């Protein structure tokens, strides 16, 4: 398409030159005959005696037009690359300053002293969720896997249409000034800011492992004492990665997209350990929202297998099933659906994209 555009501009320039040189004084003619197939003829340049200077000017004009077409092609190519998400995500960004204090698991404080008795579970019991899928659950999982392409296209298409995507902010009208929210993958704070502005939850905990984004969050919420920030992520086990920070300030960075081996440190800690340090077994948490470029699988699997999923009244998460280094993301998503359905019901869902589940005892 770009090549066709360049040829069109070049052809228009030549045509313009032909008209300019043929409409000249008497006895003056500078022409470029064209063959029937569109190529130049062997006797293409005819310049009459005494008009060599005008011919040279015409050649200069043709060169300027060709150069302009080349510059236009380069400019179009460059401007299109700016809007190409695959090009954007390949540009490494600065790491940001590492906040050592809040990047350690030892920095996590229990939320129990901040919660009223109404929102505390005095028994602190965690039910055992480790049991195999039933035959019915296996059948539903298989159907889910089979319908992936259709459901993913439909879910993503509907979610990103118009204002629909903001359901992830506007759906949670049950949140109050007494509510506790966990936000795993705070990014630049768009979701957190929208929900804080709308519902003013009493405690809003944000985890963000990328230091450049964490710095933005610190600045954004520095005057809000209800926001608790940690500079690490969650996974099935403690780990440390060195990655390139990609996207706009790091918002497209993922260890599941072949992005290891950079010079930016990214820490993740065991999900269960973090939740116990936070006091989750003794709490009734209104919402956990997870959007962390592929880590949602390990986090949800760990919460479900540990039984801690029962401590969350609402569970919202984004799914990234197309990341190249995720292991069996479609099968894992479909199994999570069946296991989550034991304790929760779907509140809204754009399959394989974004969804929220509500605990069965919540009206």
Parts with pLDDT < 50 across at least 5 consecutive residues:
1-50, 79-91
Ends distance:
56 Å
Helix content: 25-40%
> How large is the count of helical segments?
11
Number of strands: 14
Shape verdict: globular
Q: Quaternary state, please?
A: single chain
Structural class: alpha/beta
Please summarize the sheet with the most strands: 7 strands, mixed
Essential attributes:
single chain, 363 residues, alpha/beta, three-stranded mixed beta sheet, 14 strands
Give a structural overview.
There is one protein chain. By secondary structure, the chain is α/β, with parallel strands linked by helices. It contains eleven helices and 14 strands. Strands 6-5-4-11-12-14-13 form a seven-stranded mixed β-sheet. Strands 7-10-8 form a three-stranded mixed β-sheet. Helix 8 (211-220) links the parallel strand 5 and strand 6. Helix 1 (2-22) runs antiparallel to helix 2 (52-82), helix 4 (135-146) packs across helix 11 and helix 10 (296-306) runs parallel beside helix 11 (329-340). It is globular.
Task: Summarize the structure in short.
The chain is 37% helix and 16% strand.
Question: How are the secondary structure elements laid out?
Answer:
Elements: H1 2-22, E1 30-31, E2 46-47, H2 52-82, H3 85-88, E3 92-93, H4 135-146, H5 148-159, H6 167-170, E4 180-184, H7 190-199, E5 203-207, H8 211-220, E6 227-230, E7 233-235, E8 239-243, E9 245-246, E10 264-270, H9 271-278, E11 287-290, H10 296-306, E12 314-318, H11 329-340, E13 344-350, E14 354-359
Parallel strand pairs: 4-5, 4-11, 5-6, 7-10, 11-12
Antiparallel strand pairs: 1-2, 3-9, 8-10, 12-14, 13-14
Helix pairs in contact: 1-2, 4-11, 10-11
